[in-house]
Here is the input.
Amino acid sequence: MFQPDKSNFEETQIKPRVAKYFPMFESLAAANSSSSAFLVGDKLSFVDALLLNELEWTIDLFGASGLDAYPHLKAFRERIRALPVFATFLASPLRKPVPDDAYVQIVKAVFH
Here is the structure.
C-alpha cells in the first residue's frame, strides 16, 4: 500500500489478486463448509486467521459487496468472526484496517 501513485492500486494490484486467488479459497470453503466451520479440517488453524484477515481487508477496500461473488467465503467469514476469540479481537483497537493516507503519512514521517 505504500505505492507512490496509489490512484489505481486497487484496480491494478488488488482486484487481479482477488480474481486469481479467491476462487481457489472459495472452492476450499465450499468443499469443507458442510463438515466444518473451518477452511481445512475440523479445528481452528493459522490458515483460518490469515484468510479472515484478507477477507476483512477486502471488505475494508471494496465494501460489503466485496465478497458477493464468493458466497462460501462470505459464510466462512461470518462463522470465523462469530468465534469469541475473533469477535473480541475484531472489536478491539488491535484490529488494524487497511492503511489509509493518514497512516501512510505517519509511517513516512517516522522512516524518513
The chain has a mean pLDDT of 87.
